[in-house]
Design a protein that fits this description.
The structure is a single chain. By secondary structure, the chain is α+β, with helices and mostly antiparallel strands. About 15% of the residues lie in helices and about 40% in strands. The chain contains 1 helix and 6 strands; from the N terminus they run βαβββββ. It starts with a strand and ends in a 10-residue tail after the last strand. The chain is elongated, with a radius of gyration of 15 Å. Strands 1, 2, 3, 4, 5 and 6 form a 6-stranded antiparallel sheet that branches.
Length: about 120
Amino acid sequence: MRHEKTLLIRPEFLNHAGNLFGGYMMKWADEMAYNAASLAYPEANFVTKLFGQFDFRSPVILGDIIKIYSEVESEGHTSCKITIWAMNARTRAEVFSTFAVMVNVKDGQKVGLGAKAPVI
């Protein structure tokens, strides 16, 4: 299942050069990875283990509307790999793409993912 978040880029998200701070996009990507994993496995308690390379492909400026997407790409016993990407909603330019590995933990230890949520 694909998840989507739409954001208006406001002045507080910009750096000194007038472009989006990369850290905001990374924060939003982490939230989207968590959402995708948690909605797929509602009984799990996920933490972020790993992110792939963030290769920003096009600038994001004031007033842009960005769509960030995430979906579970694959599952293991204790973790799942989430694909995350963003597009400029107006220009359709790709902003970035990456992946995250989310791990289910309990009391500081990895545990099995458990039951997957039913597809609605």
